[in-house]
Each structure stands twice: as structure tokens, then as C-alpha cells.
Amino acid sequence: MHKGPIMDLQRISALFEQRREGHTLPQALYTQAESFDFDMAAIFGQSWLMAGMECELPKAGSYISMMVGKWPVVITRDKEGTIRAFHNSCRHRGSMICALGSGTTPKLVCPYHRWTYDLDGSLFAAGRMDSSFDKSEHGLKPVAIECISGTIFICLSDTPPPIDDFRAKLTEYAAPHNLKDAKLAYESVLVENANWKLVMENGRECYHCSTGHPELSKTFPVGMSKHFDSGHDERVVAFEAQMDALGLPQTPVEGHYWQIARFALNEGCVSISGDGQHLSKKLMCDANGGDIGSMRWAVDPHCFVHCTADHAFMFSAMPVGPNETHVTGKWYVHKDAVEGVDYDVEKLIALWTVTNLEDKALAENNQLGVNSLGYTPGPYSQEAEMLAQRFTDYYCDKARDYIATHGKG
Questions:
Q1: How far apart are CA 327 and CA 279, in angstroms?
Q2: How far is CA 370 from the centre of its chain?
Q3: Assigned domain for 186 exists
Q4: In CATH, what number is assigned to the domain containing residue 91?
């Protein structure tokens, strides 16, 4: 659906031709406004993006209003309980209908001229229009949506990429975590003055974790490679066998734009937390007494999620400008967990908050260095940065496909 700004695809294509295999990107792809416009059109306009969880729309009339770059989107739960997504743009003169955030409303009402839409996107009322006006032709423009095991994914393209394989695997791996029975306990937005790809490269590797994240390193296996590969670590191999016996999928699986795996935390740890212990007494998965490691999935171009027995954490990096990225963190617990009794919000968010702040400093420093006249694309570590390289390879593949399709004529 996205048409986007006019870009010189030939010039952008030349940048991708410069990229050496196994290396980071040419400087202009991290710095230039034209590259940002390209990324929005070619990547974010053509990909499945995780918007959140179904539990954020708990009843009919619930809505989420969010931005994908500069594009407003609204997600609703209609009177029948169906979750839908629309471009948040009035069919009258284009005003944004729902302010950013979430809430509950019986109708979607444009603040400009009060055009009113039902939760299914159909136009309910439009005052002072002539007798030939047909309301049925002016409903909100739909956005492709997939709800998978309690998660919500949207895609702005008229021809979304295939999702069947991801849907099947995420359904299998997420089932034990009962995400439909979760609730959003806290949400934060962090502004990072760095290109979104630098933010994501940082989030796809733990080469920096042992020194960059001392708090996370207490519970998180920062020394493992790729999909948290265990090698011949007897404790981790035993964990994998135990998960298999419990019927909890753990084998790493992946597609072109996604990865899923369950992995063991550090010895004695049952959650990704400051002390390695559960952050909520009310567990989302009580198998093995809540000692089930972390089930992680990652979806390019923008997110990852960690699900432990007690809570789930979602990380989403959304581009705003060439050197500005908004990182959203969402923490979920069991819907019946009582704040102040079963969990403490400050303790719940502490570890990922400090980790995100440390990553913000690393990404912003990375951007300053990439801006240098002396910047030259460098090689990824084949032992420690395989997922970062995988992300960059995905980005280049997706970009080249877009150029091949749209660069003719």
C-alpha cells in the first residue's frame, strides 16, 4: 500500500552493491535521510511488525493507537471480539482519528469534523454531506493483521510476506506461556539518537554483554552464540532434554525474518531478573515449578520477546528519523497477578530498563563513530555476532527485493 517519497533507487542500489559479505553496512545507509525514507518504504512498509499482545485489547471497544515511523495505525477489538487494524486517517480530509495511546471507546470519532466510524472500520456518520454521498465507500482503510497465540502482528503492505511457517512455530512454542491470559503491567518508550539498524544490530548480539551489561550477565547466558547454542555444556544439554520430556519446545527454529528458541538461563536462575528469581508469584507457566528457561522469539526488522515462567518482555525498535529510534519496552504478567501483592512494578522493570539504558548509550556512541570521516564497514565476529550479521543480511535481501520490484522504469 505504501507509495512513499520519490527516491533515487539506482543510487541506493549502488550502496548495497558496496556491502562486503560478512561486514557492516556502508556509512550512508546509517546516516542519510534518503536511506531512512528507503527503509520505511522497503522494510517497514513491507514487513510483519509486532504491535503487542491481544491482552492489551481486553474488551469490545478497546483500541491501541501507534505509529509505524510517520504512519499512524489504530488497532481495535470490535463488538464481536474480532481484532482489526486500520490506517489511522479519516476518509474525509485525512486527520488522525485516535490520539496515540490506548483506551476504550464505543466509536472512532475524528476530532476535526466528527466523522464517526464503527469499531469494524465502517463509516457510521458523516454530517452535512449531500444526498449522493455513500457511507459504504468511505470506511477506514484496513491494515493486514495476524493474531497468533495472544500476539498481534500487522503489515502495511497490500501483499504481506508469507507468515504461515512463523505462525505455526510461534503457536507451538508460545502455547505453554498462555499469553492470552496475560496483562500489560508496564510500558516505556526510550528515545535513542541512533539509526534503527544500529539499535537492532546491538540487540542481536551479546558480544558486548559481559562488559556492557553486568546486571544482565548475572542471569543471562551472555557467552553463548547464535541461537544460544549450548555446544557440549552438560548442564545446558540436560536442560534441553528436560524441556523435551516436559513437552516444552526448545530446539532453535528460524525462517527468513524470524527466529525462535528456548534456552537455559545461568545456573540457579529461573527468570531474567536482578537475582535470577521470579518477579511475579503468579506464574504464566508453572511447568517444572517455573524453571523453564526463556523462550525467545525475534522478528526482523524490529523486535524480540523473552518469555520466562513468570513474565514476558517485548522490545520494539521503531525508526523516527535517520538518527532517531524509539525503543518501546512492554512487560506482561499473568492477568490475575495483583500489583503490590504478586509483583512489584519497579522490580519487574528494573533489569530490562537498566539494560535498555546501557544499550541506548552504546548505540548512540556507535552512531557518533559511524558518522566519522574514518568509518569503514567492519567484519562481524563469526562466533559472537552471527545473529547481528543475520539481521544485516536480511536487511540487504529485503532491500534488494524491493529495488528489483520497484526500480524498473
A1: 22
A2: 24
A3: yes
A4: 2.102.10.10
Q: What secondary structure letter does DSSP report for 132?
A: T
Cα-Cα-Cα-Cα dihedral sign, residues 243, 251, 200, 267: positive
Asked whether the bond before 301 is cis by omega within 30 degrees of 0, the reply is: yes
Q: If you ran DSSP here, which 8-state letter would residue 40 be given?
A: I
* Cα–Cα distance measured from residue 409 to residue 400, given in angstroms and rounded to the nearest whole number: 16
Domain for residue 2, yes or no? no
CA distances from 203 to 188, 200, 305, 388 (A): 17, 5, 11, 8
Domain with 57, as residue range(s), is 49-155
Low-confidence spans in the chain with pLDDT less than 70: 1-6, 226-231, 408-409
What is the C-alpha to C-alpha distance for residues 56 and 33, in angstroms, rounded to an integer? 34
Count CB-CB contacts under 10 A for residue 133.
11
**Number of domains making up the chain:** 2
What cell does 54 get?
491481544
Facing residues of 57 across strands? none
Whole-angstrom distance, CA of residue 50 vs CA of residue 298: 10
Closest CA to 75 of 153, 184, 158: 153
CB 176 within 8 A of CB 19: no
Q: Give the full edge-to-edge strand order of the sheet including 123-125.
A: 108-109, 116-117, 123-125
CA dihedral 257, 260, 266, 271 (to 10 degrees): 110
**Closest alpha carbon to 282 in 351, 349, 344, 239:** 344
pLDDT on residue 7: 80
DSSP 400: H
Cell numbers describing residue 401: 527485493
Distance CA 332, CA 285 (A): 13
For cell 474488551, name the residue: 59
Residue 376 lies in a domain: no
**Are 301 and 258 members of one domain?**
yes
